[in-house]
Amino acid sequence: MPSDPLVAQHVLEFPGGYTRTTGPVIGRFLSELRARRIVGVRTAEGRVLVPPLEYDPATGEPVTGEYVEVGPAGTVTASAWVDEPLDGHPLDRPFAWALIELDGADTALVHAVDAGNPKALAPGARVWPVWSDRPTGHITDLAHFVPEVTRITSGVRVEYRLQAGGALRVFLEGIARGVFLGSRCDQCEKVYVPLRRSCPECGGAIQETREISDTGTITTFAINNLPDPRAPEVPFVSAYILLDGADIPMIALIGGVPAHEVRQGMRVRAVWVPESERTASMANIRWFAPTGEPDVELS
After folding, report:
1. CB of 230 closer than 8 Å to CB of 273
2. Both 132 and 238 in a single domain?
3. Domain range for residue 57?
């Protein structure tokens, strides 16, 4: 492609770099940065300017010469997100330029914040400095800021054994045979499934064990839209089912019927896994499916 005759390419460069004196105020600021400290200067009115200036920008009066250590943490007052860093930027990944009011300062310092994402840097966010490994007395000695640690992630893993005993063992042994075992309280005459050895209502001991039908009635239900490895499909229904002959409903999955057709009063029967696959586990019951019987009117 031919070059445009009306465009001239120029380069302005200072071999070895442009050198200038810092003066006493900025020189002190940069020297403190080299020592990994951040200082401001106090004005005649008592305000602390960071970065320090030789004159108060509000009044034009000379500053007092009193240096005050600030930070190192600060609060973000405003920020602008950079999705695509340029070669001269302090970070090679997305970051934010932010106005940071360091603790103890009355003005904000502009610096880079490695926040990870823009949502982590709302106004009011707390940030801390990350220092250069080899400070030289330059603003880049303060490499960048990072958000304050507000949460940590720890690996959690617990190994334990749960041993079924007493009533639960008897109940699960029944499930392994393909039957529900319940218990009847002699005092209040209520029948509980799963099997219990004491009555939760009257506190009396329960001696009688009886087999309960695997058919029942849906008393209430919920339609679930989140996947569950036990469910036949999504959406699926979990329901409280009052087994025939029991007085307390048990919770189970519903299958064999579209979720939107499930209703209170629907008659259902347990769908068992093949006998050869059964263990002493509630996984023996895949779900409950409609029996086709007329609905029961619930009081």
Report:
1. no
2. no
3. 23-147
